[in-house]
Specification:
Elements: H1 6-38, H2 43-48, H3 60-66, H4 69-102, H5 108-116, H6 127-136, H7 144-166, H8 171-179, H9 184-195, H10 197-212, H11 216-221, H12 245-278
Helix pairs in contact: 1-12, 4-7, 4-10, 7-10, 7-12, 10-12
């Protein structure tokens, strides 16, 4: 058996690493490539040539969506729903996580496990009881009827991320603040929150993307088109006998664009939040 030199082993490891990265990037970028270019093609060209560049760049699908007043109205609804969802999840999850990480009380670990258990339940399995509860509360066809379930399903993962980050903060800081007479509330708002910008950005982006792209909750809870958020606009391009796939792909491209832009701007804080202990433990 021929022994390989260290340089040959290193070269093979680099080649394997680059090959794995290329395959991963291909899986991630290929659907995005098809979606963006599909909006510039006609229906016939999209069927005949889904992967290649358009022969003639058709911009009608994008421009028709962008100049429609209905589109902008749905965009406003999405901004409102997503904004309230992100704000409520950040406030509630950070306060819960701070309680679980710094305040000792009977049953703390059991209560924390109960909150984290929420990650095990996909939203689709709870649609029927959620619909009945929202209907009983009189919140159907309202923004709150979509915001509250989204907040509930966003809390579990957010509490987990916040708690792991808070436990990495120096305990001496907390003890010194208590000695100086600083209470829990003041310590949380004046010291913990200003030090938690990375994890706030990380959780904020995750919740924003989840809320912005949510289709199933608005579809079930909303019947009044005046409160439709952006993702439900996809139904405009489906007819009784077919669908305008080039317009659907253009709409999806515009839908994911704000989340991508927000991620690029907050990327520095997201990486800092994750590498600062957000996913440890």
């Amino acid at each position: 058996m021929t022994a390989h030199s260290p340089s040959e082993i290193s070269y093979s490891a680099h080649a394997a690493r680059w090959g794995l990265m290329f395959i991963t990037a291909l899986f991630v970028l290929l659907p995005f490539w098809i979606t963006v270019l599909g909006g510039f093609k006609t229906q016939g060209e999209l069927s005949a040539n889904p992967l290649g560049l358009p022969k003639v760049w058709q911009t009608e699908a994008y421009t028709d969506i962008l100049v429609s007043p209905k589109t902008w109205h749905m965009l406003g609804n999405s901004v409102l729903i997503t904004g309230f969802t992100v704000a409520l999840v950040l406030i509630l999850a950070s306060m819960l996580a701070f309680t679980f990480s710094h305040i000792k009380f009977a049953g703390r670990n059991y209560l924390y496990s109960y909150v984290i258990l929420g990650m095990m339940f996909p939203g689709a399995t709870a649609i029927l009881p959620l619909f009945i509860k929202i209907r009983d509360l009189g919140l159907l066809d309202t923004y709150a009827g979509v915001i509250l379930p989204q907040v509930a399903f966003g809390l579990a993962m957010s509490v987990l991320l916040f708690r792991t980050f808070f436990e990495q903060l120096p305990k001496d800081l907390f003890e010194a603040a208590l000695v100086d007479g600083c209470g829990y509330g003041r310590f949380f708002w004046r010291i913990v929150i200003p030090l938690s910008q990375p994890i706030l950005a990380t959780v904020g982006v995750f919740v924003l993307v989840q809320s912005w792209n949510n289709y199933i909750f608005p579809l079930i809870m909303l019947n009044d088109q005046s409160v439709y958020p952006w993702p439900l606009g996809l139904m405009e391009f489906r007819g009784q006998y077919g669908a305008e796939w080039n317009r659907i792909l253009a709409y999806i491209t515009i839908t994911i664009l704000p989340a991508v832009v927000f991620f690029l701007f907050a990327q520095k804080y997201i990486v800092a939040g994750l590498t600062g202990g957000a996913v440890k433990g």
